[in-house]
């Protein structure tokens, strides 16, 4: 301790430096702006260094917190300050933000001269004072200082949009006058009641019981500085109009400091006042996010988001009674995520010239800035590996543990809305055209703060992983491998592709011994299958910036998913693969809305999964959350979840996983996402990614089995969902004009089959599901590549614009032919094996009606498959397509490998299935298959793939030869050997046979494909937007209205709070 | 019969209410600022009234008041110290608001708070 002391400077120097430097600035000559600016920066850096050094001492050298007595007297006779770990962390945050903002503000500060610099220094110093002081009146003084300096800065820096910021600053002063009246009156009565101004003294004296009203006034005054809904119009105006660097300070630093002040007040108030903090926090979180939805102005949107995040942290402080020791980890996790990300985004907004969200497209062509934006966005939405993710995990678990489920649901709802507008914004950034193609000027002093925030974000990610104590995601090899591609992005695509393939294969070789037979199938598909799909990516030229980090992030997530043993690892992997695939899908030309819909459904599903895990962890008997301090739930212990919670856990998890498999109702994201993706991405997100959802369902069903909810057996309900998914997915595929959309809808149907097999909950059902997993990977990857190749060559995905391509693209034709034979389930290919197992499986099942529905889906598949091959490859060749060549080599090569794989899998299915069949005996002892030589026997019959192949081959050859023989004299009719009518119809495609190919079927069955789900989700989105729009009308821009909001807020809080 | 302290406190709160009323209903920036100073004065009166103790003397140690029995004979000096601080801060804020009013007026030639509503929603 003493060895440490010598190196540490008194924390009072933080305040003294700020004040002293501000004073010194006054001594300089007014024209020495440069010197003044240098002095300001040095002072701020020094103010940041002191707490940084202390933080180091607290964390690594075990220094003890210090009490700083002023006037040489202990409290209550003099003001005292405290400097411990939280104070050090917060002052570091505040002072660093101040320093970086000063760098960012260079132009404004040099222009305005030393006065503005002095005010900035005082502002930062005041925030430090708010954090350090333990004296109530001193807190008031520092708060007022912060207000004055903030308003002063706004006044001085009102150059960006003259007049606007002035109005905002005045509104701020009006509101803060009301606040300071409340605070002062509260303080004096609190002093009267307790005889002390010391915060700890007030807490000891039980102020909140002795003089509740006095406490209420102080508390509500401090909380009002946190911009709670609806008393926050003034803050939003400042956020919108002030220079961005200043908003960064206001959002990150002021928010953090005042939150800490609120925390001190809650210390006085005790448990009785926690519910009020919670209520104000959560209402603000939800309302501000809702109001942010319809915003189009970037800085105002960030303002709403700031308000929301502050509300969330306040809510966490209000949950201290159940969070206990975990409170700092969670509160700081959310706070630093918010502060770093929000400051980063505000600084970033300085690089964008116009203020609409869509104008951020100007950044779209700068990979580094896009990466920064993505990082900040991930931090705000609590995605792994950032601190918010760990914090969210802990928070949700504690809430579930204390049975505060409504609060839990509200937190997740608000987070989802926030993700909605942030990801929408990211879509604009990447996919919109920059106005006039201009990019904002990128001077170093505007860039440095952004990059510093970026670095801080990743450092904090590592730190929180370390503090979390169990799994540091940033040490996971697959994730590191994916992140390494960020650093390698300057390499040409083919080198990165080779590295990626080598990495996937090498990781499989390293780990294949770890998997049980079921997981091995997934591992092969994810890793080896992923490598195989990447062969097609050799076709891409240039550097393909951003592709490999995204793709490898998805693969990393998937492999971590199957390696996960605990719920935490599983969930983290789930979010990683979701984010990776989102970035990947977003790369498609027209995929902006579809990628957004994908990420929102996926995050919604992920939140359900998170809630499910949390409730499960609370319901597993052995887990004493408080005692172990660990919320580690093994996936296996899902089986022990006790009765009342179990079916709900099952339901939450199942729906969560089904958003990924695109079960009917939550399927609407899939067609666009898969169809609009790039040629080599479609197979990845369809053939491979969909399996993650199935894997989740398998883990869930193996652990929890059959569950009853209100007398309904949930696996039975799952059967129905699966059957309807299969039928409707297939049916919708039939009516598509776009070949890739057709394949996408077909995937929905195929996933329905696989889910059906799982929901049967018998041995063969599961085996069938695994056959579907393998088959679907192979043929859907192959078909997407084939169709993608055709689309590349013909320049269209609409099938009626194609036709007759069999001679020009024979290899693609072969791939499609083999693919649809396998998919349709007719002999001799592997699809038939799936069917055979399926028929055996349903013999074992007691249910009948869903099976009928599923049977109906079978023939429907023939319709779209026929359409696919017929309209693309057969029929008449279009004139403009006469010169079309075969698809590029690198796109054809994997298809040919897939053809070979399909044939092998058809002939010797035992290679892949035998092990897993034996493995399934553990869970479903009855009904396994016997594997003898090439023959496979069930209790109902046998299947001999090789014999079938021979039989079918012989019949086919015979008929084919016969056909050739009878047609030997037939005359080949050339394409233009007929007379067309002279007229050209208005819309030529409407007379084309391939347009609306199945019109009669559409007449008969079209009602089944009404976009009910699309309409439903559209209505939900509209509702949210309308609510947000209505809420915005509260803020009419008048300072007196805002003051009235504040009064109304205080009065309502008073009646609700005092009443309770 | 209410003592002087109660009377002062009631006056203080009345001033606060008058100030709030004025700040919420007057649309002229200068009148709002005046209203706030009224409210501020009210707060100061309230603070002083809290510190007042009947029958005691001012907290000044001199020949007539020995340090030894000061605690029993003087009123609580702290609220007065607080009031001094609060007055200083109040002056600062009032000055700042006046500066704002000046700048706002020079930009729009009006002092009506209802005219500065470009930012909203």
Explain what this protein looks like in three dimensions.
The complex is a heterodimer of chains A (1060) and B (121). Chain A is mainly α and 1060 residues long. In chain A, strands 5-6-7 form a three-stranded antiparallel sheet. Chain A has a two-stranded antiparallel sheet with strand order 1-2. In chain A, strands 3-4 form a two-stranded antiparallel ribbon. In chain B, helix 1 packs antiparallel against helix 2 and helix 2 (29-51) packs antiparallel against helix 4 (78-108). The N and C termini of chain B lie far apart (52 Å).
Number of strands of chain A: 7
Biggest sheet overview of chain A: 3 strands, antiparallel
Give the DSSP E fraction of chain B (strand runs of 2 or more residues): under 5%
What is the radius of gyration of chain A computed over CA atoms, rounded to a whole number of angstroms? 32 Å
Protein traits:
heterodimer; A: 1060 residues; mainly alpha; three-stranded antiparallel β-sheet; two-stranded antiparallel sheet; 44 helices; 7 strands; 70% helix; 2% strand; B: 121 residues; Helix Hairpins; 4 helices; elongated
Which helices and strands appear, and what pairs or packs with what?
The complex is a heterodimer of chains A (1060) and B (121).
Chain A: H1 2-5, H2 12-27, H3 33-60, E1 66-69, E2 80-83, H4 85-104, H5 106-112, H6 114-132, H7 136-156, H8 164-194, H9 199-204, H10 207-210, H11 212-224, H12 233-241, H13 244-269, H14 274-292, H15 298-318, H16 320-323, H17 327-349, H18 367-380, H19 387-401, H20 405-431, H21 444-468, H22 477-487, H23 493-511, H24 517-534, H25 547-563, H26 567-586, H27 592-619, H28 625-628, H29 646-661, H30 670-676, H31 681-688, H32 690-704, E3 708-709, E4 712-713, H33 714-734, H34 739-760, H35 763-794, H36 810-824, H37 830-843, H38 849-873, H39 889-907, H40 910-920, E5 930-932, E6 935-937, E7 942-943, H41 945-966, H42 999-1005, H43 1012-1032, H44 1039-1059
Helix pairs in contact in A: 2-3, 2-6, 3-4, 3-6, 4-6, 4-13, 4-17, 4-21, 6-7, 6-13, 7-8, 7-13, 8-11, 8-12, 8-44, 11-13, 11-44, 12-13, 12-15, 13-15, 13-17, 14-15, 14-20, 14-43, 15-17, 17-18, 17-19, 17-21, 18-20, 18-21, 19-20, 19-27, 20-27, 22-25, 23-24, 24-25, 24-35, 25-26, 26-27, 27-29, ...
Chain B: H1 4-25, H2 29-51, H3 70-73, H4 78-108
């Amino acid at each position: 301790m003493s060895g440490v002391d010598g190196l540490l400077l008194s924390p009072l120097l933080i305040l003294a430096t700020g004040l002293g430097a501000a004073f010194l600035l006054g001594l300089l000559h007014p024209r020495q702006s440069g010197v003044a600016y240098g002095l300001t920066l040095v002072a701020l850096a020094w103010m940041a260094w002191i707490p940084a050094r202390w933080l180091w001492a607290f964390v690594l050298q075990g220094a003890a917190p210090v009490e700083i007595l002023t006037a040489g007297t202990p409290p209550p006779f003099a003001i005292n300050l405290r400097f411990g770990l939280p104070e050090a962390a917060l002052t570091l945050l505040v002072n660093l933000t101040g320093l970086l903002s000063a760098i960012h503000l260079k132009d404004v500060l040099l222009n305005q001269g030393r006065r503005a610099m002095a005010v900035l220094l005082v502002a930062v110093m005041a925030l430090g004072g708010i954090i350090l002081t333990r004296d109530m009146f001193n807190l008031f003084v520092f708060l007022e200082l912060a207000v004055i300096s903030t308003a002063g800065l706004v006044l001085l820096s009102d150059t960006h949009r003259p007049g606007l910021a002035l109005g905002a600053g005045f509104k701020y002063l009006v509101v803060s006058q009301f606040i300071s009246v409340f605070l002062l009156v509260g303080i004096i009565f609190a002093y009267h009641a307790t005889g002390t101004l010391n915060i700890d003294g007030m807490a000891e004296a039980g102020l909140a019981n002795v003089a509740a009203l006095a406490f209420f006034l102080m508390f509500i005054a401090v909380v009002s500085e946190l911009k709670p809904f609806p008393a926050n119009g003034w803050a939003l105006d400042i956020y919108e109009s002030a220079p961005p660097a200043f908003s960064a300070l206001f959002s990150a630093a002021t928010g953090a400091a005042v939150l800490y002040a609120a925390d001190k007040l809650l210390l006085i108030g005790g448990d009785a006042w926690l519910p009020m903090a919670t209520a104000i926090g959560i209402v603000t979180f939800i309302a501000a996010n809702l109001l942010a939805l319809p915003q189009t102005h970037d800085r105002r949107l960030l303002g709403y988001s700031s308000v929301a995040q502050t509300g969330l942290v306040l809510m966490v402080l209000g949950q201290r009674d159940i969070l206990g020791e975990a409170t700092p980890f969670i509160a700081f996790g959310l706070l630093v995520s918010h502060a770093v990300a929000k400051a980063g985004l505000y600084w970033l907004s300085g690089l964008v010239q116009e203020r609409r969200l869509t104008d951020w497209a100007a950044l779209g062509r700068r990979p580094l800035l896009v990466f920064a934006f993505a990082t900040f966005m991930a931090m705000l939405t609590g995605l792994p590996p950032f601190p918010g993710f760990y914090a969210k995990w802990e928070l949700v678990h504690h809430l579930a543990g204390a049975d505060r489920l409504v609060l839990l649901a509200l937190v997740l709802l608000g987070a989802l809305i926030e993700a909605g507008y942030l990801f929408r914004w990211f879509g604009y950034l990447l996919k919109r055209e920059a106005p006039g193609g201009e990019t904002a000027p990128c001077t170093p002093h505007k860039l440095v703060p952004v990059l510093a925030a970026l670095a801080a974000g990743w450092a904090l990610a590592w730190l929180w992983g370390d503090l979390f104590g169990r799994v540091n995601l940033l040490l996971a090899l697959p994730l590191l491998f994916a992140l390494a591609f960020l650093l390698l992005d300057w390499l040409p695509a083919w080198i990165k592709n080779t590295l990626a393939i080598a990495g996937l294969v090498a990781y499989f070789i390293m780990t294949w011994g770890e998997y049980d037979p079921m997981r091995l199938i997934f591992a092969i598909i994810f890793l080896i299958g992923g490598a195989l799909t990447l062969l097609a990516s050799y076709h891409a030229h240039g550097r393909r910036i951003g592709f490999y980090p995204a793709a490898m992030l998805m693969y990393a997530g998937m492999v971590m998913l199957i390696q996960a043993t605990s719920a935490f690892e599983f969930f983290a992997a789930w979010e990683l693969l979701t984010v990776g695939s989102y970035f990947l899908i977003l790369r498609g030309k027209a995929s902006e809305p579809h990628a957004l819909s994908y990420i929102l459904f996926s995050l919604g599903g992920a939140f359900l999964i998170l809630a499910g895990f949390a409730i499960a962890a609370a319901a597993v008997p052995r887990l004493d959350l408080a005692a172990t301090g660990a919320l580690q739930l093994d996936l296996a212990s899902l089986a022990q979840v006790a009765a009342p919670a179990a079916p709900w856990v099952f339901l939450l998890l199942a729906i969560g996983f089904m958003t990924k498999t695109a079960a009917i109702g939550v399927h609407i994201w899939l067609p666009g996402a898969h169809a609009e993706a790039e040629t080599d991405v479609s197979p990845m997100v369809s053939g491979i990614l969909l399996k993650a959802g199935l894997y989740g369902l398998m883990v869930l069903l193996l652990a929890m089995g059959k569950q009853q909810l209100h007398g309904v057996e949930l696996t039975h309900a799952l059967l129905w969902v699966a059957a309807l998914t299969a039928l409707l997915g297939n049916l919708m595929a039939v009516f598509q004009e776009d070949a890739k959309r057709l394949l996408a809808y077909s995937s929905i149907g195929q996933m329905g089959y696989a889910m059906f097999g799982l929901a049967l909950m018998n041995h063969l059902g599961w085996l069938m599901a695994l056959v579907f997993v393998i088959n679907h990977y192979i043929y859907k990857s192959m078909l997407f590549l084939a169709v993608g190749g055709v689309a590349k060559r013909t320049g269209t995905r609409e099938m009626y614009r194609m036709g007759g391509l069999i001679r020009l693209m024979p290899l693609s034709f072969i791939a499609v032919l083999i693919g649809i034979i396998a998919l349709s389930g007719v002999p001799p290919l592997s699809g038939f094996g799936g069917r055979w197992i399926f028929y055996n499986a349903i013999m074992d099942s007691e249910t009948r009606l869903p099976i009928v529905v599923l049977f109906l889906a079978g023939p429907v598949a023939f319709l779209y498959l026929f359409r696919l091959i017929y309209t693309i490859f057969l029929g008449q060749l279009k004139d403009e397509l006469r010169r079309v060549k075969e698809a590029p080599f690198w796109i054809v090569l994997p298809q040919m490998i897939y053809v070979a794989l399909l044939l092998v899998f058809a002939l010797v299915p035992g290679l892949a299935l035998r092990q897993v069949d034996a493995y399934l005996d553990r869970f479903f002892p009855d009904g396994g298959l016997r594997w003898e030589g090439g023959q496979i026997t069930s209790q109902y019959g046998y299947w001999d793939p090789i014999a079938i192949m021979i039989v079918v081959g012989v019949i086919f050859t015979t008929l084919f030869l016969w056909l050739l023989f009878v047609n030997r004299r037939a005359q080949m009719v050339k394409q233009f050997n007929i007379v067309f009518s002279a007229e050209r119809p208005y819309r030529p495609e409407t007379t084309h046979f391939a347009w609306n190919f199945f019109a009669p079927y559409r007449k008969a069955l079209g009602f089944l494909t009404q976009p009910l789900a699309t309409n439903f989700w559209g209505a939900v989105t509209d509702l949210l937007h309308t609510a947000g729009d209505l809420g915005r009308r509260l803020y009419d821009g008048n300072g007196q209205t805002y003051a009235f909001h504040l009064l109304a807020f205080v009065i309502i809080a008073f009646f609700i709070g005092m009443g309770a | 019969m209410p003592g002087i302290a109660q009377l002062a406190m009631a006056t203080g709160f009345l001033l606060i209410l008058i100030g709030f009323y004025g700040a919420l209903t007057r649309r002229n920036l200068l009148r709002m600022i005046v209203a706030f100073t009224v409210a501020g004065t009210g707060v100061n009166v309230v603070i002083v009234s809290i510190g007042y103790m009947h029958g005691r003397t001012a907290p000044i140690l001199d020949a007539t008041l020995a340090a030894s029995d000061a605690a029993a004979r003087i009123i609580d000096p702290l609220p007065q110290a607080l009031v001094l601080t609060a007055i200083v801060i109040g002056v600062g804020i009032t000055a700042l608001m006046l500066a704002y009013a000046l700048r706002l007026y020079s930009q729009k030639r009006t002092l009506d708070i209802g005219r500065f509503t470009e930012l909203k929603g």
